[in-house]
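Could you join me in thinking about how sequence relates to backbone shape in a protein? We need material for that, and I hope you will provide a protein of your own picking. Label the sequence line and the structure token line clearly, so we can match residues to local backbone shapes. Would you write everything just below, so we can both look at the same thing?
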Amino acid sequence: MNTKEKILDEALTLFSEKGYANVFVGDIADRVGIKAPSLYKHYKNKKAIFDAIIDEMNRRFTEQAKALQINGTDAEADAEIYRNLSEDKLLKLGRELFLYYLHDDYTRRFRKMLTIEQFHDKELAKVYSRLYVDDPLSYQGMLLGLMVSAGVLKTDNVDIMTLHFYAPIYYLLTICDREPEREEQSLKMLDEHIRQFDRLYGRES
């Protein structure tokens, strides 16, 4: 791990432990083992570190999506993939994505930090809403809408159908964040949720 990577790693740990507002550049430099002026050679301020952490999370997700043979952000590109998956393969993909979000160290620490900071910082509350509400609902809404148009799913309200799909998954993720011992139970519920979604909305398996 080079110095730039170590700065991001230590900053994310501090943010998740103390909250974004309570961490200063000097604190990050101390954890890395360098002086603050040396840190500024890599990142001009704390906001630049925060933005770089988001970029790194996006990079890691792109790699994971590629490994799972999906795009992950382009609903049109993924619609054809999802419509042709058997239910067993859909369950497997759902589990793998869920476990990635739950156990990827960057993603887990970042989610912890934003969960805390959303109540203290309006800008970070907006980031929380964008990353965990608006963007997922937008992508999944487009994906499910395309599957409705193709006759794979049936509904007269794509927005509500999207909520029905996404909300329980994020709910299960937050349960596991608070109580890791409930992971296996949550995975079983995830499987049942996906199966029931198929039955309710008529996806062809």
